[in-house]
Every structure is written in structure tokens, then in C-alpha cells.
Write a structure and sequence with these properties.
The protein is an alpha/beta fold. The chain has ten helices and twelve strands. Strands 1, 2, 3, 4, 5, 6, 7, 8, 9, 10, 11 and 12 form a twelve-stranded mixed beta sheet that branches. Pathway: Amino-acid biosynthesis; L-methionine biosynthesis via de novo pathway; O-acetyl-L-homoserine from L-homoserine: step 1/1.
């Protein structure tokens, strides 16, 4: 089944070339199907890149998915035009009365700042609180995961040096967990971050379960409050094959100190060679499992009946 996206969204042309089945808003209205309704809070500076990465994965399932995008009003990104945001995005104020089957909070390039110093922290905090009563399952990515763990459970983040940068081997910590159904015993995921959350802090919170972690220095990878269907993913399974290369090339061109070659990425660690993609199947399974097991199979048909928490908003 297709993923429904706004008419003329630039990501559509890329996805069509990859044979990802999409439909625009006009065609979707003629379908007599109750699609899954997803909301994406896109905190990345270049919105189109992250849109395409996520839509590629959300569209690779037999489910019909309808996506709304929002950005923060308290800080307008400088790498995406206001015209683009006006055409394809909404604000929290415009969707706060709605209910959603699923919600994705992306990463953001603010990880080295204290949470309270981030320009849009109060707004993101309000959105995360709202999600408890208006969303059936929430999927947090990278900084979004750190922000969610801090806001909901008080778990801090810590600076790391050097940067955790590369493609790292992981293993499962829980057997028969639906989110990782079909995964191999070992699997690889990209990471790119200057901060970490620590296992000992997570283990102090009874509601949280560590689902997967790195065999190397990337640490904890997937954490969940399974009862409330909240997932916190510290890596970037959604990354394109060249995402780490682009980050590495950017940092080298900017003359940043101590820029390391991404680990387990280039053959023989040679940046002159094309990277090896080891995480494509991981990304597709991760997102399709989340949609299937934690959104589609359990969400109420009538979203207005969604009331996991008392609605005080």
C-alpha cells in the first residue's frame, strides 16, 4: 500500500524513481481505507533530506500511511525556506487538536547544548507531553531519543570524545521483541553524535527496557517503555548510503580538529573508496516492525477514542 504525502513534495520524485509506492493527497481522498496517521516533528536543518529518508522507509510496508510534518515555531530553521515550510509543513498549534497513530521525533544538531538552552526546548517539551494523550506510539531518533528520555524520565546525556561516528555492530538484549523481529543475531547501524546516554542511568528506571546495544563503543541503541509504546533509538538506521561521507567531508572542509574517519564504513578505512552499506535491511525491518506491531495492530480504529492518559491539554 502507498504512503500519502502532500502534493508536490520534492521527496516524491526521488521515491518514485526508487519505485516506492506513494500517492498525493488528491488521489488518497478517493481511497475508501482508514490509513495510519503519522506525525513527524522534523528538527533537522535541511528538511528535505530527512523527509526522504523517513518516507522511503515508511512507504516500504503493505500499510497505507498518511503523514503530517510540523516544525518548531519558537525557532525557524535557516537551511529551509519559509516558503517550503508554509507549503509542506504545519505548526504544533495547527495539529494539537488531532490524534495520531504514530509520531516520530527526529534528531537535531543541538546535542552538545544543555536541553534547557535549546531555543525550542519549551515547545518540544510541550509537544512531548501532548504526545502522551494524543499519540498511540512515539518513535524518538538520536537527539530526539535523548530529549525524550530526559523529559519523560530525567535521564541525562554526557559528552563523549572523540565523536561516536561510524557503523557499529549491535546485538539484541531481549529475545522475541516484535520491534526487532527478523533481525540477525548481530546487526549494524550508523551513529553520529557527540553525546551519549548511559546504561546505568536507564537501568534505574523500572519502566524502561534496553532492547539492543552496541558491541563496540556506541553504547545503548534501543530503549523502550513497552507499556506506553515509547521507543528511543540512539542511532540513524534511516541514513542514506552517503550520509556519513557527507558529514565527514563537511567537517574536513571546515577544518574541524580531530575529525576521524567513520568506523566500519569505508573499505580499509579509505575515504577515497565508496562506503559499504550494512544497515539497509535493518532500517526497513525496524520501521516496518514499529508500524506493524506497535501502531497498526493495536491502535484503535476511531482515533478519537485514544485516551492512554487523561487529556489535560
Amino acid at each position: 500500500m502507498p504512503i500519502k504525502i502532500p502534493n508536490d513534495l520534492p521527496a516524491a520524485a526521488i521515491l518514485e524513481k526508487e519505485h516506492i509506492f506513494i500517492m498525493d493527497s488528491d488521489r488518497a481522498y478517493s481511497q475508501d481505507i482508514r490509513p495510519l496517521r503519522l506525525l513527524i516533528l522534523n528538527l533537522m536543518p535541511v528538511k528535505q533530506v530527512t523527509e526522504t529518508q523517513l518516507l522511503r522507509l515508511l512507504g516500504n510496508t503493505p500499510l497505507q500511511v498518511e503523514v503530517d510534518f510540523i516544525y518548531t515555531e519558537s525557532y525557524v530553521p535557516t537551511h529551509t525556506s519559509q516558503d517550503y515550510l508554509t507549503e509542506f509543513y504545519g505548526t504544533f498549534a495547527e495539529v494539537r487538536h488531532k490524534k495520531y497513530d504514530g509520531f516520530i521525533i527526529t534528531g537535531a544538531p543541538v546535542e552538545q547544548m544543555p536541553f534547557e538552552d535549546v531555543a525550542y526546548w519549551e515547545e518540544v517539551s510541550e509537544i512531548m507531553e501532548w504526545s502522551k494523550s494524543h499519540v498511540y506510539s512515539t518513535f524518538h531518533i538520536c537527539w530526539g531519543a535523548q530529549a525524550g528520555l530526559y523529559y519523560h524520565y530525567g535521564i541525562p546525556k554526557y559528552d563523549v570524545a572523540p565523536k561516536i561516528f561510524g557503523v557499529y555492530r549491535h546485538h539484541l538484549c531481549q529475545q522475541n521483541e516484535p520491534l526487532f523481529r527478523g533481525f540477525d543475531d548481530e546487526f549494524y547501524v550508523p551513529h553520529s553524535r557527540h553525546t551519549e546516554i548511559r546504561k546505568e542511568d536507564i537501568e534505574k528506571v523500572d519502566e524502561l527496557t534496553i532492547l539492543a546495544e552496541s558491541d563496540d563503543e556506541a553504547g545503548v541503541y534501543a530503549i523502550a517503555n513497552l507499556e506506553q509504546r515509547q521507543f528511543f533509538i540512539t542511532g540513524h538506521a534511516e541514513y542514506d548510503p552517503l550520509s556519513l561521507k557527507q558529514e565527514y567531508d563537511r567537517d574536513m572542509a571546515a577544518g574541524m580538529p580531530n575529525v576521524n574517519v567513520p568506523k566500519n564504513y569505508y573499505p580499509d578505512d579509505d575515504p577515497a573508496r565508496l562506503p559499504v552499506v550494512r544497515w539497509r535491511s535493518v532500517a526497513n525491518l525496524l520501521f516496518s516492525n514499529w508500524l506493524n506491531y506497535y501502531v497498526y495492530q493495536e491502535t484503535p480504529y476511531e482515533l478519537d477514542s485514544l485516551c492512554r492518559y487523561q487529556d489535560n491539554i
